[in-house]
Write the structure tokens for this entry.
Amino acid sequence: MARAVGGLLAEFDAELEDEVSIPPSWNVAPTDDVPIVLERLVDDGPERRQVRQLHVARWGLVPSWAKDPGIGSRMINARSESVLEKPAFRKAVQSRRCAVPADGYYEWKQGPGKAKQPYYVHPGENRGLVFAGLYEWWRDPSVPAGEPGQWMLSTSILTTDTPPPGSESTVFGKLTALHDRVPLPMDKATMQAWLDPEADDAAGLVDLVRSGVKDVAADWLVESVGKEVGNVRNNGPDLIRPVEALF
């Protein structure tokens, strides 16, 4: 995710509640900070209005009932098939839905023995992605009320089964060869519905997002990249430079 704050605000027609800093990263890891877009209802005089905002959240959702934030490292993804029932996600999917912007994501292909080849999955024409996500606020009991850091904002990305490739040669054959799951992308209209804080049909919204994955991902590219991406200490645009695959 290497887009600047100003670019994200313009792209999503969002505003800031507080100033945020989002350094570019070509190797986002669990528990790193990532941008999220959400909509809230705010009081505006005698009326309430919807406001779209850009926030920074920790990647790996920490449920409000968690004793400590460590659980978040296991909550970076939420399976869309069970998100309505899982204790960690079922409240968030009802009222705390968000969009998670990204430029692309990495996946590894298993080769002979212990060999693995990383791939960079991204849209064509230098367009960005936006994934369906959830967010949650967690209160740190060790921080006094009103002090900075009392509340932690965290997020998780919904996933689904990789669409079957069909009879023709498509990107989905390549994705299936990499993994049986994909993060759930959204087009603009789907994102609008997903973010609506007044929408109360969570099951219908999950179905809506799942139904659009094949159309949104139809132009994705799958490019082999260097193994340096496997070390979180490596970061920079060189990580997404295509290289010849090992197998």
Remarks:
- The mean pLDDT is 94.
- Residues 39 and 196 are 6 Å apart (CA to CA).
- The two ends are 28 Å apart (CA to CA).
